[in-house]
Amino acid sequence: MRGATHAKWAVCAVVVALAASACGGGGGGGGGGANGIVSSSWGDPQNPLEPANTNEVQGGKVLDMLMRGLKRYDPKTGEAKNMLADSITTSDSQNFKVTLKDGWTFSNGEKITAKSFVDAWNYGANLKNNQKNASMFSYIDGYAQIHPKSGSPTADTMSGLKVVDDKTFTVKLNQKFSTWPDTLGYPAFAPLPQAFFDNHEAWLSKPIGNGPYLVDSYTKGSKLSMRKWTGYMGDDKAQNGGIDLKVYTDNNTAYTDLTAGNLDLVDDVPASQLKNVKADLGSRYINTPAGIIQTLAFPYYDARWNTPGAVKVRTGLSMAINRQQITDTIFQKTRTPATDWTSPVLGAAGGYKAGLCGKACDYDPAQAKQLITEGGGIPGGQLKISYNADTGSHKEWVDAICNSVNNVLGNDKACVGGPVGTFADFRSQITQSKMSGPFRAGWQMDYPLIQNFLQPLYYTGASSNDGKWTNADFDKLVDQANAETDQAKAVADFQQAEGVVRDQMAAIPLWYQNGSAGYSERLSNVSLNPFSVPVYDQIKVS
Amino acid sequence: MGRYVIRRLLQMIPVFIGATLLIFLMVNVMGDPIAGLCGDKACDPATTAQLKKEFGLDKPVWQQYLTYMGNVFTGDFGTAFNGQKVTELMAAAFPVTIRLTIVAILFEIVIGITLGVVTGLRRGRPVDTGVLMLTLVVIAIPVFVTGLLLQLLLGVEWGVIKPTVSSDAPFNELLIPGLVLASVSLAYVTRLTRTSIAENSRADYVRTAVAKGLPRRRVITRHLLRNSLIPVVTFIGTDVGALMGGAIVTERIFNIHGVGYQLYQGILRQSTQTVVGFVTVLVLVFLVANLIVDLLYAVLDPRIRYA
User: What are phi and psi of A286, to 5 degrees?
Assistant: First the structure.
């Protein structure tokens, strides 16, 4: 009978459906206290998870849990403190001697020796390995041979790195760089076990490190489970049983999951929810400064922006932007109007100087209009601010800035936004020097040093000097600062260099960005470090 | 019949090549994907050159396309920028989306056809008017509104379901997302069935069947429904492909890591390999679904025969 076969099909379909749903039983969080598991939102890392190849926050937060390097930035103050390093000494700011602490191992039992570092750094710097952070090693002598600007490497190792014994190695830099040891907290400088080199594929699918956590299971693109490593040697032992990072396609969805009690921690509260977040979470919402500054950069390869008059125009534009109003209304106070070119997380001792920008960063419509007119008006008659339209809701604030500028100039068409479809296209237009007007520039610090906010961005030919700005005075002051053996003097020199950036208005500082996070009632002791990443190991579960 | 199938299969080849070429060109037009890999920093030129070489982006587009298609025929869909094989991504994404599609199609068939038959047999009565208005409302509301509302009400306010789907995405968690995904098509299926039934219920063969004294149930299922299903089957068949490719909004709302999610990620990161790979498979799904629909015609109505 035909009817009978139909019925049979229906039954089969139901059985299959039930069986399938039974297979996929999801386990909830296990227990509380020291064994409690924290579930946290995550974004799919852009690059494979390896120290020298990770340059964005999502991969970075994992490395921060799995790896420990010579130094580590204090989660509260950002100060670089010795972790695996027993000491890093120098007499001339160029030759460094690194000694390691005793007894540290990787989670697979392998001892951490000087070789673990030297091999890892050589791997990271080698052009053959395509590591996106290779330039972090560019200060080490011999980098040019292992990572030539073109052609293939002529060496396999950097001549500046020498293993002395199990516990000691020396580093020779290719220039004086007094604060270089403080850069070593950056994840790219983490040591790697032999297993990384022996079976790279296996390591990538289940990374082995030396941090407070170890990888329990990793399903790429959806979930990474980490558990507390009981053999961890450091003082910052995990206060919870582990962290489950769940990939979310959309931070709004993650926020919904948090409010429904399905997730413990969201480290990126979506802009659209900022209005409700106080009501939803109360004191379980964190909004603290991070080492991120947003600026407007200019294309100095375009002759019209490189005239003496253009300095006045840029300063005038800076004064035409009502920073306070934009940060209050569009960002709901999760940004702070910038008054210098660094970040408050550096602290006064680290080089942050509130008000360094002076009047040029104050909203002053009359003065702004006067300066822009004196400088010969906006080059080309219209200001077009480029931004990528795919992520980060940049449209809102770019439109707001334009509105501000248009009001000042009394001209509806003086400033318009110039959306670019994707971030990749936006970046490729910048690297190919195709910008005709100012463009959005964001800088997230690699390490909490004033050097990191100035040199990569404004030094002649520097890696992230997207506008190709060049100024001999600035370069001289930076070189001088780097050669200084005394930290305080170095910082003062950098601030003087920052003064040059101000006088020329090389880039218009907009605002410092805060990190924001929200968490469930199960958690306590949640905080964000200066990189706006939760300090996962200190989170307590009740 | 056999010749017809072979002819249809041969027709697929130019469609397949044309579609993949178009996608390939479109993704390439978007600009240099490597530039976005280093965040707000500029990638260092030597590494960029090296990466371009590795992904074959340093060659002219036509050559990239030929190499790509050559590889596809050996089952190699290339590598996404995060170092994962595209086939690996497919293996993770397609089962999830297929499950979601099955749930959605089942809703369409069960609820849609049932409502269609009920209303079609009771034209003009309150039930008919009620369902017609309801379907109109469903069609008018965009999917993301339905999705977010159901998520908020059932997931957050009442706690009936989890607001998001876990990474395993079992069938029971996919019920609500499946319903959301199916909602608009479901309304169309209802309306199509209703019209078709209403029209055919006056047909000669139905009158004959009733006159023969056949039981009402048999008249409806054997005679009326079977003939009325042809437009509905056409719609559902094409909808299979549309649901799989168009699940992007639903997948985003409920955090389902299926095809839509991978495509979205691929487009954002301009990963040619990911986008072209997934679209290639989706094109195949469309083509096969359409073929099956055409073959089903002959089964439903023997008067439609393909030589």
Answer: -110, 140
